Amino acid sequence: MDDRPVGVMDSGVGGLTVASVLRRKYSAESIVYIGDSARNPYGERPAEEIARFAGEMKEFLLEKHVKAIVVACNTITFNTPPSFYEGPVPVVGMSADFSALPKARKVAIFATPASIAAHSHRRGVARALPEAEIREVPCDGLANAIEMGAPDETVAAILRRCIEAYHTEGAEAAVLGCTHYPLKRQLFEALMPGTYFLDPAEATVDEAMKRLAAEDALSARREEDAFYFTAGAEEASRLVSEVFGEKRPVLPASL
Ligand code: DGL
Prior knowledge:
By secondary structure, the chain is of the alpha/beta class. It is 39% helix and 16% strand. Helix 8 (185-191) links the parallel strand 7 (173-176) and strand 8 (196-198). The chain is globular and about 45 Å long. The protein binds D-glutamic acid.
């Protein structure tokens, strides 16, 4: 048993969609969350910069004595070198195991430009559905609009533009390849009715917990969670309450 918290990192509020799965499925685990809202979006930055910022968040979480780190950000996961996953505690990135996808002739992948450039989601989909036609959709500006709390009409307009530009019509399945996107899942569903949307959050959290279980390091008793943001802690506080269904401590942080 290990009652230390699980660290969760993202470029902003998107990782809350992963943290909420952790809370729902593994309710004895405590969470220390860091969101780098001040430097969002990561998905429109070069890989070296993404890796440097992610390293700073890793240090931050290690200083909070976490027992594992869940990288709740696809952009970080697919733009960091293998050394990022080494360290004193397990570091688990977003899952690219898409075996849960239903049979589909056409699959769309929605992700940030930096994630799409890495093509890890494409490889994951091709492994799961070798025959499928794959449409990669780099959604410029989408994660940041969600991060900034833009109105649904603005977010929907960006998404509609991406859908049209990359011809996703007729896709029976799609991957939500950025952790910000499930916060606006209803807009995806409205613009692509009938499409099955896969959120890799659950597979990611399950993988992290499997690693801890193998080390007999699951928690027996939940302590207080803490959510840190490098900017906009006040606005994030509303979202944290919404996602977790109760008020949690939300604090400013600097990296
Ligand atoms: N939430 C992040 C992801 O899963 C990226 C958002 C950003 O561009 O910073 O890729």
